[in-house]
Amino acid sequence: MLLHIHSFLNSAQKQPPTLWHSLAPQTRLLCTLISVFAIALTPNGQWKTWGVYGLGVLMTIFVSRVSLRRLLARVVIEFAFVGVVLLGTLFRPEGQVIWSWGILKVTTTGVMVLGSVTLKVILSLFVVNTLILTTSIPDLFQALLALKTPPLLVAIMASMYRYIDVLNREFTSMRRAAISRNLMSNPQMIRHVMGNAIGSLFIRSYERGELIYQAMLSRGYQGVPSSPEKLIYKKRDIAALLWTGIMVILGQIIHLI
What we know:
With about 260 residues, the protein is mostly helical. About 70% of the residues lie in helices and about 5% in strands.
């Protein structure tokens, strides 16, 4: 979330009038969840199935008219962190050894697993980031409530989104203050200074959160967001869900053949 704070803060920008944007937020969220679960639960080595899912992802990106530059920038940043974990799947004892160096051995099974998991991650990141770039954060919260997500969980996420900019400004001010006092010039002191800054930020955030919560209760806050009105699925929403289901079923049929 912190990696894309500027995208979150600018999520209220006007969206183009496309077929994807005409869908209800809960429909977009539901199509995304179905796609991600189908991609993640497909067994390793099913390249044809992921080819079908990849085609569906490309169609979604094309229909939504999302900025490819912003989409790729987000996926690259996120994959850089996930890729470090993925490297651990390469060194597996099963299969034929392709390369070895000491105790490290690269096998055919390890390469297959690495390729499969990497493809799953990339497709899932494209789907999720397409949803985030084309749907405002408040609409996502309303969609979660419409899909019967626990209201308390939605309230916690809404609070995180609302005050994440405040935390970012507070941390920036503390870092600037440390630099002005020449505390960041010594590499041995950076870890100590940043640790103290994070601890102080946590305490100040806890205290401010308690004050804000008490102020909200005094103004009639019930502790959970209000449930949205009963939402009616239009024909285009039903068609989008059916299309997503057909793509998932087609991919699984190819997997079974």
